[in-house]
C-alpha cells in the first residue's frame, strides 16, 4: 500500500511576530518602539534578519518552539537590536551584556519595554546574576560571538526549564579564524551535547556568513 505523502510541517511564528509590509516589502515585524533605525508603521517595526541571528532563524523557518509570552534569558544583548524584538513578544526578558558601551543603548531600548531587564554581567559567570534571573526560563537566546560559545550555553543551562529551548547562534570565526566553519560547528555541537539535545541546525549563510543556528533542549 502506498504510504501517505508526508507534508513537512511549517514552523509557526511566535504570537506577537507577524509579517507586515514596509516600503512594499514583506518583513517580519514586532510591535514596539523602533531601536535601530528600522522601518515602522507607528505600531509594528520591521525585524531585520541581516542584523539579527534570531531574525534569520525565523526567516529560515527553523522550528524554535517559541510561541510567544515566554520568559527569556538573552545572552550577548549588545545594544538591544534583537533582544528588543524578543521583549516585544516574550514575557520577562533578561538581557545579559558585559560591554558597558552597547549596554548604554540597551538601557534606552528598555525604557519603553517594561518587560526588558538589562544586566551588565558576564555570561560566563552565571552565578553573578542567578539571584536576579528567575529559574525555569522558557527560552535562552544566545549570540555572544566569543570563543567558548558552547561552554556559555552549558553554564547557563541551569536557568532553563526542562522543556525549555536554547536558540543559539554560533559564529565560527569567534572560535577559530583559521579553521573551516564546518569543523568548528562539529566541535561546538559535540561539546553542547554534554548538556543539550540538539533538535535542529541550519547555516545562517543567507543572512550571516559562517554562522550556525541551533535549536536545542536540555538533556
Ligand atoms: N545579539 C545581538 C543582537 O542581535 O542585537 C548582537 C550580539 S554581538 C554579535 C555579541 C555581543 O555579545 C557583544 O555585544 C559582546 O559584548 C557580547 N558578549 C560577548 N561575550 C560576552 C559575555 N561573556 N558576556 C556577556 N556579553 C558578551
From TrEMBL:
<dbReference type="Pfam" id="PF01269">
    <property type="entry name" value="Fibrillarin"/>
</dbReference>
<dbReference type="GO" id="GO:0008033">
    <property type="term" value="P:tRNA processing"/>
</dbReference>
<dbReference type="InterPro" id="IPR020813">
    <property type="entry name" value="Fibrillarin_CS"/>
</dbReference>
<keyword id="KW-0808">Transferase</keyword>
<keyword id="KW-0489">Methyltransferase</keyword>
<feature type="binding site">
    <location>
        <begin position="143"/>
        <end position="146"/>
    </location>
    <ligand>
        <name>S-adenosyl-L-methionine</name>
    </ligand>
</feature>
<feature type="binding site">
    <location>
        <begin position="122"/>
        <end position="123"/>
    </location>
    <ligand>
        <name>S-adenosyl-L-methionine</name>
    </ligand>
</feature>
<comment type="similarity">
    <text>Belongs to the methyltransferase superfamily. Fibrillarin family.</text>
</comment>
<comment type="function">
    <text>Involved in pre-rRNA and tRNA processing. Utilizes the methyl donor S-adenosyl-L-methionine to catalyze the site-specific 2'-hydroxyl methylation of ribose moieties in rRNA and tRNA. Site specificity is provided by a guide RNA that base pairs with the substrate. Methylation occurs at a characteristic distance from the sequence involved in base pairing with the guide RNA.</text>
</comment>
<feature type="binding site">
    <location>
        <begin position="97"/>
        <end position="98"/>
    </location>
    <ligand>
        <name>S-adenosyl-L-methionine</name>
    </ligand>
</feature>
<keyword id="KW-0698">rRNA processing</keyword>
<dbReference type="GO" id="GO:0008649">
    <property type="term" value="F:rRNA methyltransferase activity"/>
</dbReference>
<protein>
    <recommendedName>
        <fullName>Fibrillarin-like rRNA/tRNA 2'-O-methyltransferase</fullName>
        <ecNumber>2.1.1.-</ecNumber>
    </recommendedName>
</protein>
<dbReference type="GO" id="GO:1990259">
    <property type="term" value="F:histone H2AQ104 methyltransferase activity"/>
</dbReference>
<feature type="binding site">
    <location>
        <begin position="81"/>
        <end position="82"/>
    </location>
    <ligand>
        <name>S-adenosyl-L-methionine</name>
    </ligand>
</feature>
<dbReference type="GO" id="GO:0000494">
    <property type="term" value="P:box C/D sno(s)RNA 3'-end processing"/>
</dbReference>
<keyword id="KW-0694">RNA-binding</keyword>
<dbReference type="InterPro" id="IPR000692">
    <property type="entry name" value="Fibrillarin"/>
</dbReference>
<comment type="subunit">
    <text>Interacts with nop5. Component of box C/D small ribonucleoprotein (sRNP) particles that contain rpl7ae, FlpA and nop5, plus a guide RNA.</text>
</comment>
<dbReference type="InterPro" id="IPR029063">
    <property type="entry name" value="SAM-dependent_MTases_sf"/>
</dbReference>
<dbReference type="GO" id="GO:0003723">
    <property type="term" value="F:RNA binding"/>
</dbReference>
<keyword id="KW-0819">tRNA processing</keyword>
